[in-house]
## 1
Amino acid sequence: MKKNKKRIELVVKPGTSLKNKTGPWRTEKPLTDLEICIGCSLCAKVCPDSAITMKQNLKKSKLEPHTDYNYCKGCGLCAQVCPVKAIKMKKDY
Amino acid sequence: MEQIRIHGRGGQGVVTAAELIALAAFYDGHEAQAFPNFGVERSGAPIQSFARIDNQAIITREQIYEPSVLIIQDSTLIGNVDVFQGISKKTKIIINATKNNWSHLHLKSKHLYFSPATEIALKILGKNIVNTVILGALVKYTGLISLKSLEKAVQTKFANKGTEIIKKNIAALKMIDKI
Amino acid sequence: MISKNKKQILEGSNAIALTIKNIAPAVVSAFPITPQTHIVEDLAKMKADGLASFEYIRAESEFAAASIVLGASATGVRVYSATSSQGLLLMTEVVFNIAGMRLPVVMTVANRSVSAPINIWNDHGDAMAVRDAGWIKFFASNHQESVNQHILAYKIAEKLQLPVMINVDGFILTHSYEPVIIPDDKTIKKYLPVYQPPTGTYLDPKNPVTLGAFFGPNNYLETRQMLHEDLMSSLEIIKEEYKLLNKTLANQGANHQRQKLSRIDNGLIEYYGPQKPKTILIAMGSVIGTILETIKNFKDVGLLKIKVYRPFPAEEIVKIIKPAQNIAVLEKAISLGQSGPLYADLAATVMASKIKKNLNLKNYIVGLGGRDITQKMIKEIIKDAPQKNNYLKFIGKI
């Protein structure tokens, strides 16, 4: 082997899924009607990408879901589990 | 020898697409070869598959670096993966899209075909799985395989999925022929 | 007579599974591992659908699967297993036992690299890890060859009491589609008789015997010598059986004529190219096709395909390489710390032979971990072959 030949590091640092923005994979997009939403958090719990976070709305005194569309793949599980049908899937491609 | 390279993501039926091409070409009486190139085996990862068609036995097994036909099942790959690597002026490029959003790329080849495969797949199959639809486009724009053989290939390959799925896929790939 | 032997286009794994079904072993046991999975999944599905007669025994690991087929074979029945890479390594102890016990086990190895680092793609690292175990080793370069070698394997194994390993390149052959003829069971029966080992050579309560006994310093050496000599004399028998198999297949309309370009084809090796080549490339497995396509444009380059790697067909090889000046051994494996194993075998063969002149023998390590081998790389190797420089090069850049 030549001197100063670049060595390949076999010990690697863990990757991050944050780098891989999977939003563009969507065919459909979930839209949440916050008026109907009761803040039960089921959507956030069920989302396979952890793309929904619940935030406290102090004015209305309830939790509200915020969907990060950078990562939402449009699987529709949130819309399926919502007990009040506050989430509708819309075409997005 | 025709060399077809297909780009897509894991779970979109990219490997099946190449296999259907080989089956159809074989039914047409040609020699054929099809094989995949997996990256990591997970849904959504970019993958390629390859198909070769010729009139004599195909013996080479390297991947396809100079495709005569390029199929892009998922246009979000453009810009993330070098899908256009190795194309020539003559390469026929079929992209799953409604219009040309990539004229700024000034591609070497002007043989660009845009097929609204997602629309048709959603309408007829109820899912965004475009492989059979885009093969209908392959028939239309290149004639490398016949529609009749492609239908037979779908019936063979999807035999274990049931008659309903086979019927829908055949309807979908015939749709592209009419647009 | 209506023959069911027609050409179809099939996935390599499926072709192997259909062949095994038609050969009808009594027992199949395997543990899934990429890229062998499609073979055993197809066999399991055939069994579940009532299309196959064999007993499919699920195993909890490759060690278990190999042990199951060893045990079944020891009772005097035909068996089958398949594995790759880490699976083959896990069952290594059993692989050595099977050969030492002279059991006619037939196994497909869907060649895959070995960890670490972890890699699921093709190279011959797994085959070479058990190179010295005493199995006959075939290397297939296309689907038809793979199918035919499985049939040949059973005949040889049962005739000579030697296990046979058929190496098929993972993904490249197992997951690709290509035209092939699967000889039907009637055709296979014309070539492969029902397996009935002589009484007293297998486990039977009516006639109790011990297989795999203890051999001390006074006789272990002679048993290994006997195994070695039996392997060496199998070379001629493999040649005869290869001829007989081809004749049988042709008579039954099951002979798939891929472009027959080889000048010499005797079951152990095949040679393509000029009668008096300047350079000969030597390789095994699926890369043969790509090399063959490349050398079409080279008037003085030949290709030697090694189909039987163990026992090593030294005599056949010497006959072929004698007229050349440059020998380039391309292989998908390396004995880390020395050279590629095929190169080492070649060098030993040349040393022991009557070849007087100084052959320029070089080793090119290619395709490791599934790195694609391109016609460009092969052209580079052909250009480098006559250079009298480093005898070992890794060729990886496309």
## 2
Amino acid sequence: MKLVRTIVRAFKFALQNFWRNIWLSIATILVFVLTLTMINLLIVVHVLTQTAVQQVEDRIDVSVYFKRGTSEPTILEAREYLLGLSQVRSAQYVSSEEAYTRFTQRHRNDSSIINALSTIESNPFGGSLVIQARAPEDFEFILEALNNPQFGDAIEQKDFEDHERIIARIRSVTDRVQWFALGVGAVFLVIAVLIVFNAIRIAIYTHREEIGIMKLVGASNSFIRLPFLLESLIFSLVSTLIMAAILLPALQVLDPQLSAFFGTASIGLTEYVFSNGFLVFGGQFIVLAALSVLSASVAMSRYLHV
Amino acid sequence: MLYLNEQEHTTAKKKHQDMIKLHRVHKEYHPNITALCGIDLHVEPGEFVSIVGQSGTGKTTLAKLLIAEERPTRGRIVIGGWDITDIHASQIPFLRRQIGVVFQDFKLLRQKTVGENIAFALEVAGEPRQRIRDVVPQVVRVVGLHGKEDRYPNQISGGEQQRVVIARALVHRPKVLIADEPTGNLDAITAHEIVDLLRKINDFGTTVVLVTHDKDVVNRLKRRVVTLKNGCIHTDHKVGKYVLA
């Protein structure tokens, strides 16, 4: 009971410290919020990178065109063979008729192509397979596997674009963005720690008379220290709450636009943050609180002689 | 405890009777700056002792040693049977709750009312709210500040401010009250009122150590007077007067 009383009273003193140095408190919280912004930007960039890479990976396929006259069972046999490979995610069969229909549909507004096609009496397209791999690096193996003598001779063309380079480029750009955000975040974190140090130092200075009286009338050392530690926790808590109040609406606005950009139903950022809010913001609060308590402790050991 | 003979028993009994005991206490700030040189002082429970002497004779150093604000270079200090010579920092708050301290410069919190300043000593010690509500009005009445609980320090006189400090020192019901120049900032009439209050507190059984260089105050008291000179006890009279050392 006495412990609870002591904590409640120390919390009251901590709030008094907070209000009496309100401008310093605001400055500290501002830097904390900027630090958290950088950290959250890092998280968002990471999610967007993953989404972008996934989008590109989903679109990578290799089209295998079979010679005209290759029978459907041969192509389906090749499809079955490919599906049996662990590296193949899907293999879609496109018949020669379907290929013809798709071509005419695609070029329906280009009369010259349609006219040229009509001059050919028979369907010029052969059957094809559209193959998707589980990972971009699997394509090399798949292309090699297509040289199987059972149907290798029936293949007219393999259409494969080197998507690995595109993915590598996306990763390179986003890695740089992440490193930049990480660097700026680290700088803000150092500034935040120094500001907390200074805030506690000033709080000790402005309360030196009160601290002296506390010592005189028998306040324990821990009771004198506790308000300063609680004050640093208040800084962390208020900053995290402000960050949450900024980030959640911002994500709700951004998410549909990002989803439209990536052409997906939802990036899932908002859902992720809402469903893991305690983890996301709790984790940020714990890191911030640990750093600020450490900083406050160093300031107290230097300036609070109890 | 087993005593070998009557004399040892008497000595041991006397040891326990001493509220304050200083045994060959030295305090040196630097090898060539000696504040106190081998002080031997015994104060019995309920005594009223005035420590007098000119400025720089070690009066305030002695007061600081009694509240463990300073440590002796050599010697032993025992308060109420508790040897505080090498007191651990974590134990000092418990000592200070048993010793009331009054200073010349009041040390009141300007943004707190009279009542809040007095309650502050109990709040920081973690006392329950109900006990604070009970104790504060009692000590306010003892020091004669009834009706002024809601005033701020700048709304009351210097004498009243010193009464607030005394009230704050009394809330823990201390065994010893140490007053270091409590009348230093007060006019003669108010100073006498404060000394009367200290005498009243002493009558309740609290041991009072008054550190002062106010001749009128000491002579009016007609109690024990210990005179310091160059950090040493020059005279110690049971019923003494202020004599320039």
